[in-house]
UniProtKB/TrEMBL annotation, chains A, B:
<dbReference type="InterPro" id="IPR016039">
    <property type="entry name" value="Thiolase-like"/>
</dbReference>
<dbReference type="InterPro" id="IPR020616">
    <property type="entry name" value="Thiolase_N"/>
</dbReference>
<dbReference type="Pfam" id="PF22691">
    <property type="entry name" value="Thiolase_C_1"/>
</dbReference>
<dbReference type="InterPro" id="IPR002155">
    <property type="entry name" value="Thiolase"/>
</dbReference>
<dbReference type="GO" id="GO:0016747">
    <property type="term" value="F:acyltransferase activity, transferring groups other than amino-acyl groups"/>
</dbReference>
<protein>
    <submittedName>
        <fullName>Thiolase domain-containing protein</fullName>
    </submittedName>
</protein>
<feature type="domain" description="Thiolase N-terminal">
    <location>
        <begin position="6"/>
        <end position="221"/>
    </location>
</feature>
<feature type="domain" description="Thiolase C-terminal">
    <location>
        <begin position="241"/>
        <end position="384"/>
    </location>
</feature>
<dbReference type="Pfam" id="PF00108">
    <property type="entry name" value="Thiolase_N"/>
</dbReference>
<dbReference type="InterPro" id="IPR055140">
    <property type="entry name" value="Thiolase_C_2"/>
</dbReference>
Length: 386, 386
């Protein structure tokens, strides 16, 4: 396998935006290509994560749209869809395309346009990431699914409602340092705890956001990255991808998500690293309980101890393993198909030392964790700045 | 690159079926795995082409569904979507995953469930493969798009309405020998020519079908294929993938489809072959005019001569380059996401000599051509039986 690095990154602001799909792709795609400092003709292929523009924008075939909007005619451009992991899977495929020697320079991106639709339509679109026949058509929604997971966590360990609220407080605070974030906010714990219930035990601030946004990156062989000599070289040293059942009822357990375990094991092994070697991580906090479970499944904390770690400040900006310093899905926003690439954007920005006010003092090895649906798909990547 | 071969194939009957997505995947997936003669645990990853179950079945995240339905837990399973080329792109990615050394045995499939929806909903779903903002929302449909292409062809060359009808006659006749075909029919030219207009100059029999169906295959290194020693080894000797604009108005010409030119050039070069070396081909005849144009773009005939070739019987079962002996999209059926893999199914079946009544006497090198939308994506594969 050839060594692969990230040579360019770009993203839009996240939130309720006036831009449609074309404009989001144009802005983030051009930013990434400009950041790489390459000609468009140097790009040989592309991958684009998009979850459900079919429902939300009557638009499929987003690959060809990216080619047309960015003026990249005749190159192969592949849309990947794996629910909320659509972007992470695009990154994995783009990585493989370069590592496997098929292409030297590849564009990878993600896009989602959501806020123009009613909550009902968005909720129904999101539910298409679970099993329609056996789950969604019976009325299950994602807050409902993750509420079951939270209840099971409470049952197996203890009630961590307060710790979940603390995840929200930290993430909204982190977002105050991120100019691209959708909901920067200095919240106190009481406000979060007293917010309206969505699906018990999840209340308003336990849920991630509905967001418009796009993020793109350019990958190349590390040899090319070094020859460009424009930014600190950021190499993808570990790449993992795993699946699990589509349904929640098919899973053998709910408080350990097997796809995270398997994908992160692959990435750690490839990188020759263990969890304690990671300086910081962007993880898939679709709900606050999810961040706690993921922090355990990635090996940052023992099973059942992730909630304590939050209260002890271990996942805060100045903790031993800062998680979601971008604000995460919770506060930066969750433009579904773009989320996996926006995580990459944050990690590369930190590794380059370009994160301005939110720059972490120690940022040499970062991890992205992106999953889809009820953890039916998971992609994990580990990046190192040289 | 490692050499890659097809070790297993399976498909459902094509047509208006009672089965839903789960059942279609189960049937075709298990057939392919059984045909390969391997244990399910030997499969390391998978790719699944699906166009628009989002609209048609409220179902995204089909990758995780495939894993669950077939009992392939925790392996990465990637949905690709590129309109009608979703299956061909899945094949391309699966090929790369094995050729690049990431996995030794990979499942690849495609599925679409369409006939349970009204014509209005299916037409609107199909239109999501063109540019919604600038085309579909203004009322353009795919019969409308390809009608423009046909008119342009008539303008640049001559009126080939009769030759288009002959494509339909041949394909429906070919389908009579295919037990999986949706619309086997012995039609006479007058019936086809006198059918109701859909979008001038395209009439009823110029259009491909609305179809439920699934097709799967198992790819492996050629080394593994030979060690299994179960079927004639069928190697993928050329793989090409190219894009073009999403919109029809963005194309520089309408009677030569650049994505076909570029993808087939890649495949021919990799295989070290030229068009005249191909024994037979399954091509993307979404409309009869399209088959004529594709037969020129693939280099089987000179530009403007593809229609003559049809009348002269050159593309018939006993012609110099039999096209769509399966019946094609026109008569076997067009289960969108599955089409690219069903083409592979036919080519492998012929190369193995397993095509029963429709077996071609000369079948050593076959080609699949699958495109999406208004030719915004194209995948071409060349296979050889050893």
């Amino acid at each position: 396998m050839r060594s692969v690095s990230v040579i360019g990154i770009g993203e839009t602001k996240m939130g309720k935006l006036d831009s449609g799909l074309h404009e989001l792709i144009l802005e983030a795609g051009n930013k990434a290509i400009e950041d790489a400092g390459i000609e468009k003709t140097a790009i040989e292929a592309g991958y684009i994560g998009n979850f459900d523009s079919a429902h939300l924008c009557n638009q499929n075939h987003i690959g060809a749209m990216v080619s047309e909007v960015l003026g990249l005619k005749n190159i192969p451009m592949i849309r990947t869809e794996a629910a909320c992991a659509s972007g992470g899977v695009a990154l994995r495929q783009a990585y493989m395309a370069v590592a496997g020697g098929f292409y030297d320079i590849v564009l990878v991106g993600g896009v989602e346009k959501m806020t123009h639709q009613s909550t009902d339509i968005v909720t129904s679109a999101l539910a298409s990431a679970m099993d329609y026949e056996k789950e969604a058509s019976l009325g299950l929604t994602f807050p409902g699914s993750f509420a079951m997971i939270a209840h099971r966590y409470f049952h197996e360990f203890r009630n961590v409602k307060k710790e979940m609220a603390m995840v929200a407080v930290q993430s909204h605070k982190n977002a105050m340092l991120n100019p691209d974030a959708q909901m920067p906010r200095d919240l106190d714990l009481e406000t979060v705890l007293n917010a309206d219930l969505v699906a018990s035990p999840l209340s308003l601030y336990d849920c991630s956001l509905i967001t418009d946004g796009a993020a793109f990156a350019v990958l190349a062989t590390t040899e090319i990255a070094q020859s460009l000599n424009k930014h600190r070289t950021v190499e993808i040293i570990g790449s993992g991808h795993a699946g699990d059942t589509l349904s929640i009822f098919g899973k053998k357990q709910l408080t350990t998500l097997d796809a995270t375990i398997s994908a992160s094991k692959q990435a750690y092994e490839q990188a020759g690293l263990k969890a304690s070697d990671i300086d910081f991580a962007e993880v898939h906090d679709c709900f606050t309980i999810t961040q706690i479970i993921i922090s355990e499944d990635l090996g940052f904390f023992e099973k059942g101890k992730g909630a304590d770690a939050v209260l002890e400040g271990k996942t805060a900006r100045d903790g031993i393993i800062p998680i979601n310093v971008s604000g995460g899905l919770k506060a930066k926003g969750h433009p579904i198909g773009a989320t996996g690439i926006s995580q990459l954007y944050e990690v590369v920005t930190q590794l380059r030392g370009d994160a301005d006010k939110r720059q972490l003092p120690k940022a040499n090895i970062g991890l992205t964790h992106n999953f889809g649906g009820t953890a039916g798909t998971c992609a994990v990547h580990i990046l190192k700045g040289w």
